[in-house]
Amino acid sequence: MRIFDCTTYFNEPLIMDIRFNILNEHVTKFIIVESAYSHSGAKKKINFDKNLYPQFKNKIEHIIVDKEPENILDTDNAHKDINKRTNSILRISLQRNEALKACKEASEEDYIFYSDNDEIPNFNEIDFYKNKSKFIIFEQKLFYYKFNLLNDRIFWYGTKGAKKKHIKLISDLRNIKPKKYPFWRIDTLFSKNKFSNLKIIKNGGWHFTQLKKPEDLFEKIKNDEHHNEFDKLDMNVDHIKNMIDNKFIEYDHLSDSKSTSKIGNRFKLKSIDINSNMPTYLKRNIKKYEDWFDFDFEKI
């Protein structure tokens, strides 16, 4: 039984360094898929360089997607906001689905996991040889800007996986709902995202999102999946710096899915102690990444 870790890449060298170091002991191969287009459709250069990670270089396969989806919608009409969002989803799906194609050497019994690169599973919490569930989802803590600035309003269900024989498309795997439905729910027999044969891993890892300098974060936000919503805020680098300095976000994860936007409401982040269920690798390397912790290091 082997583990294939699949993710996508925009330009996140820091988080990839963390990812490789945390997951290396468990993972047989890292599949990194990068597109020549951002989620907003802007042409971009290829940023990932596996030579930056010599310790893991032989485990890494870097896949480049150099085309747009075939069914991109027009964004110069009355439905431009909806179409922008739809186009982002199409681009993301294309990029994610290329990862499965790269797992050619995986057997049908090997495990394939997909995460966005800042969603890091805690593989120590599952015994794969005893697992009988078809699908596995990791319940993760959500952090912003720093490794220890916690959004304690929700858990994040990022990393999802299964044996290769159970996966048709990574995009379908990504859309599985983080809920184990009762066996008598007949609708699960015909659904692509509702399952009863599913395991949710508690203490399942860490979602370290937006760990970037303000300028770099601004560039990413302009081009990510929700770029159409951020465009309405007229956000700039100073605004992002203010959010980081004052430890708040303007994104309501609990907003009703039918609402027009999740952006605009302010929520304070909580600084937590390094011993509060942090990855062992980070605990051992606090000084190496001291710029990315919300600590007064003179008092440590």
Structure description:
The protein has about 300 residues and is of the alpha/beta class. The chain folds into 2 domains: about 5-205, Alpha-Beta Complex (Spore Coat Polysaccharide Biosynthesis Protein SpsA, Chain A); about 210-275, no CATH class. The protein is about 25% helix and about 25% strand. It has helices spanning about 15-25, 80-100, 170-175, 215-225, 225-235, 235-245, 280-285; strands at about 5-10, 30-35, 60-65, 110-115, 120, 135-145, 150-165, 200, 205-210, 250, 265-270, 270. Strands 1, 2, 3, 4, 5, 6, 7, 8, 9 and 12 form a 10-stranded mixed β-sheet that branches.
List keywords for this structure.
alpha/beta, 12 strands, Spore Coat Polysaccharide Biosynthesis Protein SpsA, Chain A, 23% helix, 24% strand, 300 residues, two-stranded antiparallel sheet, 2 domains, 7 helices
Q: Strand tally, please?
A: 12
Largest sheet: 10 strands, mixed
Mean pLDDT equals: 90
Task: Show unreliable segments.
Answer: none
Order of helices and strands: EHEEHEEEEHEEHHHEEEH
Strand content: 15-25%
**Strand-pairing-aware structural class:** alpha/beta
Q: Total number of helical segments?
A: 7
Fill in the CATH topology of the largest domain.
Spore Coat Polysaccharide Biosynthesis Protein SpsA, Chain A
Return the CATH class of the largest domain. Alpha Beta
Radius of gyration from the CA trace? 19 Å
Distance between the termini: 42 Å
Instruction: Supply the CATH architecture of the largest domain.
Output: Alpha-Beta Complex
Identify the overall geometry.
globular
